[in-house]
Amino acid sequence: MFEKSTWIRLPRNVVVGHGVRSSVVEVVDELHLQGRPLLVTSPTPRAVAAEPVAADFEAAGIDPAIVTIESATFESVETVIEAAEAEAASYLIGVGGGKAIDIAKMASHHLDMGFLSVPTAASHDGIVSNRGSVPDGDTRHSVAAEPPLAVVADTEVLAEAPWELTTAGCADIISNYTAVMDWRLAKRLKNVEFSEYGAALSEMTAEILVDNADHVRPGLEESAWVVTKALMSSGVAMSIAGSSRPASGAEHLFSHQLDRLAPEAALHGHQVGVGSIMTAYLHGGEHGIWRDIRDALDSIDAPTTAAELGLDDETVLEALTTCHEIRDRYTILGNGMDERAAREVATKTGVID
Ligand SMILES: NC(=O)C1=CN([C@@H]2O[C@H](COP(=O)(O)OP(=O)(O)OC[C@H]3O[C@@H](n4cnc5c(N)ncnc54)[C@H](OP(=O)(O)O)[C@@H]3O)[C@@H](O)[C@H]2O)C=CC1
Ligand SMILES: O=C(CO)COP(=O)(O)O
Ligand SMILES: [Zn+2]
After folding, report:
1. What is the extent of the structural domain holding 120?
2. Residue that finishes a domain, picked among 118, 145, 160
3. In which residues is glycerol bound (predicted)?
4. pTM for this one?
């Protein structure tokens, strides 16, 4: 008897383009959302986009509330839940980078409320996904969360953000190559659930971005357009898979461990990009695709070495040898890397000297 079932949750409206920030109120209206919005933001995005969006709501006769969070933690999720209750909010709007959007997504899941995603940086592929990712003690799991009802991605805002945020988004997409390699390996060795559609979409997204790398240049609004479309596509791959597997393998374990060992040293996307160079080497050896990944990162100005991440060699090696413990996700790292093997892969790929 056939007993499979799946439930793919995706946004109803995705609005991308020049100046669309001013469409947030219209998008809310189109979704028939009633009552008071709570804008969930972080310090810089508050000034860049949350306050202008709040002003648009006021002009439309709607009184919005705003809460600012500083970090991607469960305490921040709690802060937002309390603010939503205290302010009698009816729905949430995450305005910011990955931190603000993840926290809004997770709080709205807990509150059983709708949420909109308004990215201010093309820096991560959680813009559309129904996963939230925050550290939990010594571990980190991406948890099921509310997918956005709608996404409003203003390329003018995204293009004005610091360039390294956009290159971080590119690197988060380029890392899909190794994430899918790890996923296939885990399917073969551990029989983990695998989605051909999720994997194919994730790989195709990385392919299209790399093919369009010439259009990803500082000062070009078109860069924000190209990268944001890729970030959305990667998020849809995660929603199809019902897991972050299409976009998160050992290179993400490496980055999550760096977040613990050297908090705020580098952006999420940049860390996973460097991780991806090394895990591609572990998958394919000298003649694998690690050089293609390094060159693709280099071509869009993303870091390819520990020094460019602002990290010392020992921190990179510690992360490589311990990151398999951070979550129960089988990858090319297996039960962990030997220290000399870690030094060899990091040296051969030029990540450390
Ligand atoms: N759920 C998912 O599927 C995914 C989740 N993630 C998560 O997303 C996070 C990484 O996202 P990322 O965006 O790099 O992290 P942040 O949200 O921390 O943003 C990075 C930096 O950019 C700043 N910033 C954001 N927008 C602008 C702007 N327009 N102008 C100037 N500065 C700006 C932020 O300012 P400020 O400090 O003031 O906030 C912050 O300093 C991680 O927590 C990661 O785990 C990543 C991928 C997928
Ligand atoms: O960053 C992500 C995908 O790019 C989310 O993955 P995690 O499940 O590792 O948090
Ligand atoms: Zn990521």
Report:
1. 13-160
2. 160
3. 125, 172, 252, 268
4. 0.97
Q: In angstroms, what is the span from residue 39 Cα to ligand 3's centroid?
A: 23
Q: Name the residue at shortest CA distance from atom 7 of ligand 2.
A: 142
Same domain for 120 and 188? no
At 140 the pLDDT is 84
The reported pLDDT for the residue numbered 17 is 98
- Does 175 lie in the same domain as 126? no
Q: How far is CA 47 from CA 18, 53, 286, in A?
A: 19, 10, 47
187 is in an annotated binding site: no
Residue 230 Cα to ligand 3 midpoint, Å, equals 13
Could you report the per-residue pLDDT of 19-68, keeping only the tens digit for each? Answer: 999 999 999 999 999 999 999 999 999 999 999 999 999 999 999 999 99
Whether the Cβ atoms of residue 131 and residue 244 lie closer than 8 Å to each other: yes
**Residues with Cβ < 8 Å from 291, sequence gap 6 or more?**
none
Question: Would you say residue 3 lies in a domain?
Answer: no
Query: What domain count does the chain have?
Result: 2
Q: Are residues 43 and 106 in the same domain?
A: yes
Has residue 353 been placed in a domain? no
3-state helix, strand, coil in the chain (%, to 5): 55, 10, 30
What is the distance between the alpha carbons of residues 232 and 152, in angstroms, rounded to a whole number? 11
For the segment 281-288, the average pLDDT, to the nearest whole number, is 97
Same domain, yes or no: 173 and 246: yes
Give the tens place of pLDDT for each residue, 185-217.
999 999 999 999 999 999 999 999 999 998 899
Ligand nearest the Cα atom of residue 105: 1
Q: What does the alpha-carbon distance between residue 178 and residue 248 come to, in Å, rounded to a whole number?
A: 8
Q: What is the pLDDT of residue 196?
A: 98
Same domain flag for 200 and 180: yes
